[in-house]
Amino acid sequence: MTVSPRASSSPASGFAGRVLAIDYGRRRIGLALSDPLGLTAQPLETLARTNRRGDLRRLREIVRQHEVRRIVVGHPLNLDGTSGEMSAEAKQFAARIEKQLRLPVELVDERLSSWEAEQMMAAERAVSGKRRGGDVDPLAAAVILRDYLERRHARTGPASSGILGAANTPARRKRKRSKS
Q: CA dihedral defined by 3, 177, 13, 18, rounded to 10 degrees?
């Protein structure tokens, strides 16, 4: 679902500038950032929630620092596609960001993004032998952003799988089957 119909365009990708993805939560906000061309998604950081004003102030600083031109907010739908309590909160948060930061903001289906991020972290731990991994929130935001960028490129030109891997990973195939 789109919170704002506004869009800037560039010949290469349909949009100009970096995209910031937000994995919204009541206690933490996971952030991921695209490259300037909108081809790759990288985990950025986790913001510990403080209050609305403080959260928006920190997001505004990140947007300025990284020259963000568009924001996508994960829309936490139930597996059957229905909205729940967190879905309504994320929608309100997205509207608040759009109003305060004056950037285009889109809600993006985030079903199974945290699960996929946890699977990626578990695989990394298995390979590296580390007992603990990093923070899952920015990685979940990167999964949301990767999926958004892939869909956007599928509509506007050649698709790019981005930094998080090919579009045909086992987790992506499982998600596609469950949606059918």
A: 60
